[in-house]
Specification:
The protein has 217 residues and is α/β, with parallel strands linked by helices. It has a domain at 3-117 and 136-154 and 173-189: Spore Coat Polysaccharide Biosynthesis Protein SpsA, Chain A (Alpha-Beta Complex), CATH 3.90.550.10. 34% of the residues lie in helices and 17% in strands. The protein contains eight helices and seven strands; from the N terminus they run βαβαβαβαβαβααβα. It has helices spanning 16-21, 40-43, 64-74, 94-102, 119-132, 148-151, 164-171, 196-213; strands spanning 3-9, 28-33, 53-57, 79-82, 108-112, 144-147, 176-180. A seven-stranded mixed sheet has the order 3-2-1-4-6-5-7, sandwiched between helices. Helix 5 (119-132) runs parallel beside helix 7 (164-171) and helix 5 (119-132) packs parallel to helix 8. The protein is globular and about 50 Å long. It starts with a strand and ends with a helix. 38% of the residues are buried.
């Protein structure tokens, strides 16, 4: 199966180069630059090292979720991987993520982190587990593998993927599973994820709409 890797980027100069060098063996890498202060192509040369890479740029800062959806729309692979540009996700774990899909066991695979840093993310996870009746330990991870057929049907309403991806996967009857991945320490600022707060209400609205009208919104 052909694999497409989507990497949303915002101000990751000095980190992205290292990540891309480790992805040369994959079929397609899509870098979505979310209006970084220094555009990606200003510090990356499109030479042989990046011959499998497509560079897209949002001309206004539109957020992580917009960049992920734009990458999914562009992707040509059978399996879509999403990962961060800061080096926190190890490319060597991609094969581990893809394996349950290749075996026919899952439609979406979450790369489970050793711990979840933000309390708001933990609360969104607990809420979604309660709504779906499925126990996923880390559905908010940014490191995941999804069958492209399903990924291209995702609507992903809201401010971020936290909770919503898990809920919509459940609503679409997707089989979900997790594999443990390693996370190296990355020295970068961790901002408060304000988008998590409205996400609680967006999740509840989506769930109630599905229950009442049997469709995703």
């Amino acid at each position: 199966m052909k694999i497409s890797i989507i990497i949303p980027v915002y101000n990751e100069m000095g980190r992205l180069q290292h990540v891309l060098k480790q992805l040369k063996k994959y079929d397609e890498v899509i870098v979505v630059d979310d209006a970084s202060k220094i555009p990606v192509l200003n510090y990356l040369k499109k030479d042989e090292r990046y011959k499998n890479t497509v560079f897209l740029r949002n001309y206004i800062n539109s957020g992580y979720l917009f960049s992920i959806k734009r990458g999914i729309k562009y992707a040509c692979g059978d399996i879509i991987i999403t990962m961060d540009a800061d080096g926190e996700h190890r490319p060597k774990d991609i094969d581990k993520l893809v394996l349950p899909i290749l075996k026919g066991e899952c439609d979406i695979v979450y790369g489970k982190r050793p711990n979840i840093a933000r309390v708001s993310e933990v609360m969104l996870l607990r809420m979604t587990n309660c709504l779906t009746g499925e126990y996923i330990k880390d559905a908010g991870t940014g490191f995941r593998a999804i069958k492209a057929f399903y990924a291209k049907e995702l609507r992903l309403k809201g401010k971020c993927t936290c909770g919503m991806l898990h809920l919509e996967a459940y609503q679409k009857g997707m089989r979900s599973c997790e594999v443990s991945v390693d996370l190296p320490f990355i020295n970068k600022p961790r901002r408060v994820a304000w988008e998590h707060f409205p996400q609680f209400f967006i999740l509840l609205k989506s769930y109630l709409s599905y229950k009442w009208f049997e469709k995703c919104i």
